Each structure stands twice: as structure tokens, then as C-alpha cells.
């Protein structure tokens, strides 16, 4: 007998059909069990976005599609009960419920989310996914959603309230875009410890922070030390700068990102003051060993540190200039503020960037020049980016004292070579990073023709000085562009 229905009719002559489960009843059952197990979490979930929208997305929209039987409800609650205890404080309950539901009922989507968030994490790790990955994951998401039951109008799924970068995703036409983040979107996910956070996503899958991330406890610990003992906060920064990673300085870079993502009013005045002191104590030494740089070869940690410094009371900056160890970083800050006030180019003045008052800037410049002028030339020339110090002194400070400083430094050949080495710029090309010695830079501080002739003379000697002079001659460029 090939027909199983006919066979069953012979065995069971009378059957009583059971009506299908009502979807609303199943969702209500799921809410009931979760509320019994997690009363505080469910209560908070209803107001997490001030409207209960995301609770509706998880429990009604996705629950309505994926929950089909009472067994589905029980398995979901058991999965949440098992895993939630292992997540750190501050994790998002609704995100975890949604992820467990997807894991149980839509495993292909679960694997897609895991892969997608691994790529989202690349943005915090200093990179980004390839263009092929963007296209591939968008196409794959389309197929998965179609299999689940979404054939159009994906915005009704509320997926963008759970994952970042999918607000512009559409299954219709060619507009299938992922990794398209709205302004500040990743920051909001990170601040809330969400599933879509570059620093927290791994908690939801493996109950552990990503290896490249700064844990919330580390962030809180740094803030506590900054408020109580700035020297301890500086020690934390130095330790992080030496922590093994794929590039030196990575963990300091990430910590500054996390601090920069915090709302300014969430930091106390003591925290801001301690952070400023810790940064001023460490930025030069960290830059000297860091491999974190922007597209132009400059240290990308310094601009992030400056943004944090600007949260401090500007009246405290004078003390930082007088006592801080990172004079090279301070030179960057002074140049930033000088430019904001149109120095030396009045056409580039920008009042919105003016953090210090002009009297504060002038007073800080006097202290800066006094400190640098009192240093040995070798110490100045061996700073991480000495050219910036020299330009700050020339553009904003006392050119007479600078000329005397350079002249004294160049008296002997060793000092002359050190001075020229400090005047080298940075050039980034397809072949890598180089450090050219531009004639126009030399001309800012000394006579370039005289310097060139002296280099050629030293290069004729067969010793270490001659080799160094040859290397500088090879780096010499008559024009910058």
C-alpha cells in the first residue's frame, strides 16, 4: 500500500482534528514564561526604547513568524535561561531573546548574523569588510529572509532595531545594502552593550569579549583611576600601549574610542581632569612606539586624545603645558588652536574649533616655548614628530629664539644631521611610507643652499656621519609637490 493516509484510515477509522495553535496565544505564552523567569528584564524591555517598539519586534513580529508550537516557546525560554546568566551586566535582554529564537528556528540567519557582526567588528578594529563581502552578505540575507517568509517590505521586520547597518537594506530591486551605518549608529549600539556593538557582540555568542576589545570593566576601572589618581590612569595607558596585538598601540586606540563615545556629561569633572593629566603624561611615549596611524601617516591616537582633552575645563590647560611630559602632543594642540584663530593663515580661522580663549592660547605658547628652548636639542629632535614642534615654535611662538636654537644645534656635524633629520616629512604612497627631506621645510629653519652644500661635504667622508649624510641627500626633495 503506497498511500500512507489510506493505511492510517484502516488503523484509525475515526480521527479528531486538533485545531492549529493561535499565534497570539503562543506569543502571550512566551511572554508569560519569560516574565516569570525574568521579571525585571521583561519589565525593562517594555520601556527600553520609550515605546515598547523593540519588544514588539522581538516578541510579536519575529515571534509570530518563528514560534509555531508550545514546544518552541519552552525551548526558547530554556535557551534564554541557560545563557543569560553568563552575559555581563548591561547586556541587552531583548537582543539575547531574539538571537536565541533565531538560533533555534532560523539557523541560517543565526550563522549570517554571526558572520555579519564579525565584519562589523572590523570597524572598531581599524578596518572594514571588503566590497565583495558587502555584496555577498546582502544577497545571502535576501535569500534567507525569503525562505523565512519575508518577500518584501523588509523594514516591517524591524531588523534595523536589532542590527546596525541594515536600515538601507531592501529586498526589492538592486538596493540591497548592508554595512551602511547612520551617523553615530555604532556608537549607540556600543554604549548600550547591544548585540550589534563592535565591542560586545561576541558576548552574545561565546560569553566573552572580542580579543581586540576593551571590556566594560577595563573602561570603568580606567575612569575610576582617572578620578582618583591620574598617575595610575597614566600607568594603565602605558600598559595598554604595550599589550600584545596585531599593531602596537591598538588597545590605547580602542580605549580612547570608548571614552570618546561616552556622552560628555557622563564624565565627572574629576574624571575629565584625571584623563587630561594621564594623556599629557603618556601621549609622546605612546606615539613613539605606536603603529596606529591614519591615511597620511600621522599618529591617529593624538586627535582622539585631543577630543577628550577638549572636554576639560580650558583653564587647566596652562598647568598641563607647564608640567606635562608630552610636549610634542602639546605642540599639536597649540597648532590646532592657533589655526582655529587664523594663525598663521587668517583665512582658515574657525570659531567652532576654538577651545581655548586667545589669552589662554598666548599664555600657553609662552610656557611651551620656554620649556622647549630650555631642552637639549637632541631631546627635541628625538621627539616622535619633531617637525611639528619646530613648526609650532616657528608659526606661533618666538622665531628669534627658534633661529638661535637651530643655529646652536647645528654647530657640530652631529647636531646638524640631527636637525635635518628632525625636519623630514612623511609621504604615503602605494609603495609604503617614506620620510622625504623637503627643501621648503629646511628653508623654514635654515638656509637650504648652505645646508645642502654641507650635507654633500659630510657625505664624502667614510664614516657613520657620511653614511647618514648620504641617506639624507637621498631623501632630499627640491619640491614638495
Report on the architecture of this protein:
With 481 residues, the chain is mainly α. It is built from 25 helices and 4 strands. It has helices at 4-11, 23-37, 39-45, 53-66, 70-84, 93-105, 107-124, 131-148, 185-191, 201-206, 216-228, 230-242, 250-261, 269-289, 301-309, 317-323, 327-340, 358-373, 377-381, 386-396, 399-409, 413-422, 439-445, 448-459, 464-475; strands spanning 427-429, 432-434, 437-438, 476-477. A two-stranded antiparallel ribbon has the order 1-2. Strands 3-4 form a two-stranded parallel sheet. The chain is elongated. The model has no long low-confidence stretch (mean pLDDT 88).
The pLDDT mean sits at 88
Main β-sheet, in a few words? Answer: 2 strands, antiparallel
Using DSSP, what is the number of strands? Answer: 4
Which range best describes the helical content: under 10%, 10-25%, 25-40%, 40-55%, 55-70% or over 70%? 55-70%
Amino-to-carboxy terminus distance: 88 Å
Shape: elongated
Summing up helix and strand content along with how strands pair, one would put the structural category as mainly alpha
Low-confidence stretches: none
Round the Cα radius of gyration to an integer and report it: 31 Å
Number of helices: 25
How is the largest sheet built, in terms of strand order? Answer: 1-2
Strand percent estimate = under 5%
Pattern of helices and strands: HHHHHHHHHHHHHHHHHHHHHHEEEHHHE
Amino acid at each position: 500500500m503506497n498511500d500512507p493516509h489510506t493505511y492510517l484510515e484502516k488503523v484509525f477509522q475515526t480521527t479528531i482534528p486538533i485545531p492549529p495553535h493561535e499565534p497570539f496565544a503562543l506569543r502571550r505564552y512566551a511572554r508569560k514564561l519569560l516574565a516569570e523567569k525574568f521579571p525585571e528584564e521583561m519589565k525593562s524591555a517594555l520601556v527600553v526604547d520609550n515605546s515598547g517598539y523593540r519588544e514588539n519586534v522581538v516578541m510579536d513580529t519575529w515571534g509570530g513568524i518563528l514560534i509555531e508550537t508550545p514546544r518552541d516557546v519552552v525551548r526558547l525560554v530554556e535557551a534564554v535561561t541557560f545563557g543569560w546568566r553568563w552575559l555581563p551586566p548591561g547586556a541587552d535582554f531583548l537582543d539575547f531573546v531574539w538571537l536565541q529564537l533565531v538560533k533555534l528556528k532560523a539557523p541560517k540567519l543565526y550563522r549570517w548574523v554571526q558572520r555579519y557582526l564579525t565584519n562589523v567588528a572590523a570597524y572598531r578594529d581599524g578596518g572594514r569588510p571588503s566590497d565583495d563581502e558587502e555584496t555577498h552578505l546582502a544577497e545571502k540575507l535576501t535569500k534567507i529572509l525569503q525562505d523565512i517568509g519575508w518577500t518584501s517590505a523588509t523594514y516591517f521586520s524591524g531588523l534595523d532595531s536589532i542590527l546596525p547597518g541594515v536600515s538601507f537594506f531592501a529586498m526589492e530591486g538592486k538596493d540591497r545594502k548592508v554595512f551602511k551605518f547612520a551617523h553615530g549608529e555604532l556608537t549607540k549600539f556600543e554604549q548600550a552593550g547591544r548585540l550589534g556593538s563592535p565591542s560586545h557582540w561576541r558576548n552574545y555568542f561565546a560569553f566573552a569579549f572580542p580579543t581586540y576589545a576593551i571590556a566594560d570593566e577595563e573602561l570603568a576601572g580606567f575612569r575610576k583611576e582617572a578620578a582618583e589618581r591620574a598617575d595610575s590612569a597614566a600607568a594603565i595607558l602605558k600598559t595598554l600601549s604595550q599589550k600584545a596585538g596585531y599593531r602596537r598601540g591598538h588597545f590605547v586606540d580602542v580605549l580612547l574610542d570608548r571614552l570618546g563615545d561616552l556622552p560628555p556629561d557622563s564624565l565627572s569633572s574629576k574624571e575629565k581632569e584625571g584623563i587630561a593629566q594621564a594623556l599629557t603624561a603618556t601621549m609622546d611615549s605612546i606615539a613613539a612606539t605606536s603603529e596606529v596611524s591614519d591615511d597620511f601617516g600621522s599618529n591617529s591616537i593624538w586627535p582622539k586624545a585631543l577630543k577628550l582633552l577638549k572636554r576639560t575645563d580650558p583653564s587647566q590647560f596652562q598647568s598641563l603645558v607647564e608640567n606635562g611630559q608630552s610636549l610634542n602632543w602639546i605642540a599639536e594642540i597649540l597648532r590646532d588652536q592657533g589655526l582655529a584663530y587664523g594663525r598663521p593663515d587668517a583665512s582658515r580661522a574657525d570659531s567652532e574649533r576654538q577651545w581655548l580663549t586667545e589669552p589662554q592660547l598666548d599664555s600657553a605658547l609662552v610656557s611651551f616655548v620656554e620649556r622647549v628652548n630650555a631642552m637639549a636639542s637632541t631631546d627635541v629632535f628625538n621627539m616622535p614628530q619633531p617637525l611639528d614642534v619646530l613648526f609650532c615654535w616657528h608659526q606661533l611662538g618666538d622665531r628669534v629664539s627658534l633661529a638661535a636654537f637651530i643655529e646652536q644645534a647645528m654647530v657640530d656635524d652631529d647636531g646638524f644631521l640631527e636637525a635635518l633629520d628632525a625636519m623630514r616629512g612623511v609621504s604615503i604612497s602605494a609603495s609604503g611610507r617614506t620620510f622625504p627631506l623637503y627643501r621648503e621645510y629646511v628653508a623654514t629653519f635654515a638656509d637650504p643652499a648652505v645646508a645642502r652644500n654641507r650635507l654633500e661635504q659630510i657625505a664624502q667622508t667614510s664614516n657613520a656621519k657620511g653614511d647618514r649624510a648620504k641617506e639624507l641627500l637621498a631623501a632630499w626633495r627640491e619640491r614638495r609637490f
